[in-house]
Amino acid sequence: MSKINSKQRAIIIGLTILGCLLILFFGLRALRAFQKFDGRVPHQDFPEKLETDVERVRDWMTIPFISRMYGVPEPILYDALGISPEDNHKKSLRDLNQEYFPETDGVVIQLIKAALLANQKPPTPVPPLTAVPPLTPVPPLTEIPAPTP
Is pTM, for the whole model, over 0.90? Predict the structure, then answer.
C-alpha cells in the first residue's frame, strides 16, 4: 500500500471541504427558489392565443388559471362571484361552489361563463387576403446572330 503524505492528505481534505461548501451553497439557493415558487406558476402575461370558447370551462379550474386562459382579469371574475380573492386563489370552481353556494350545483361555473362572455376582448380580426397582381409577361428571348468573320 502506498502511503499518502501529509501534503496530499491536506489537498484531499481541502477539496472535500470545498465540495461540501459548494453543495451547501447551491443547495440553499435551490431551497430558497423552491420556497419562493410556492407551487405557483411564475408571473406571466396573457398567452398569445387566448381561449374564446367558454364551454371549455371545467370545475377543476381555478380563477387565476381561467383568467390567464381567457384574458379576463381576476378581479372581474371574483366580482362576478361576489367573493374575495383572499384565500380563494388556489380553490377550484368546485370548491368555491361548495363553500359559497352549497345549495345550488354549478352556479359558480355559470357565473364565470357569463363573466367571461361579457368581458372577453374582441378577437383580433384577420386581415383580408390581398390579391396577388398577375405576372407581367416577359418578352421571349431572341437569338442573337453570331458575328460573321
Answer: no
